[in-house]
Amino acid sequence: MILTLKLPMQGPLNHVNAYLIRDGNESLLIDTGLPTQEAMLTLTNYLKEYGYPNYVIITHYHPDHIGLVRLFKDSNIFIHEKEIEYLNFILSNEYEKEMKNYLLSNGFPEDIIDRMFRNRDRFYEIIKGVNFNKVIDGDTIKVGGSEIKILWTPGHTMGHICIKYNEILFCGDHILPNITPNVSLLRVNDNPLKSYLDSLDKIEKINGKIYPAHGEPINNVKERIEEIKEHHKNRLEEILKIIEMKGKVNGFEIAMNISWYKKWDELSNFDKQLAIGETLAHIKYLLEKNAIKQTNIGNKIYYTKN
Fold this sequence. Notes:
There is one protein chain. By secondary structure, the chain is an alpha/beta fold. 39% of the residues lie in helices and 22% in strands. The protein contains 10 helices and 13 strands. The chain has helices at residues 37-50, 63-66, 81-90, 93-105, 110-116, 122-127, 192-204, 221-246, 251-257, 269-288, and strands at 2-8, 15-23, 26-30, 55-57, 76-80, 132-135, 140-143, 146-152, 161-165, 168-170, 209-211, 292-297, 300-305. The chain has a 6-stranded mixed β-sheet. It has a 5-stranded mixed β-sheet with strand order 7-8-9-10-11, with no helix packed on it. Strands 12-13 form a two-stranded antiparallel ribbon. The termini are far apart.
């Protein structure tokens, strides 16, 4: 039995899908929802009816997925080892220093950067006292009479995982039906867009229905993957045109000139944060493809076409 638990969240997405799998006498919960009173009430009402799970799998560290994990201290909780590594990084002093310097060097305004780092301490509260079992690609977890397989799909986050149960794939935020998942540069030396595109190729080889964390199940998986790939191809071409037109440009100038769904000045603070991460992820991809080159002048970074 598979149950979709629709947990409320603010904004256009409206809710996140958690999934409860019951197999024989055991059950597994995939993701937990935001750490809000409304989401907690909704989730606990579901669990009063269907019972608390023996196992919990977190697809990735974002608050709408890991937010209520502390409710399940009596369950076996699984998360990819790379997510634990990254959570430790963002709670460290090195994270803020490294990323702030990189964002400032790319020309992003200090007030926007400061807002980006304002709430990182909430992750400490979310995971405080939780004992995670680390998983890696290919691990299996026995639930009832079935084996759940872990598929590592980095890109949206560095430790994002999908979960294969029989012919069904629970894909978190890796593939979404109505929007393209955010792919942001989370550490200076990473190349998340390359990782993400490679992860799409990995999932494209798997037949079956996909259950995403936002929206309805996806049947036409290959078609949706091609649409997402085309989106990123167009974004990369747009950035190359911006650099070609301006000659020498920093990250902030590129971000402001990309055709987001709204003009830059009309984006919310949260959407600007996502846009910054996306811009830098695409720049890093182009740098490693040698399509553009980086020039450091003093403590500032500029990009030109190769």
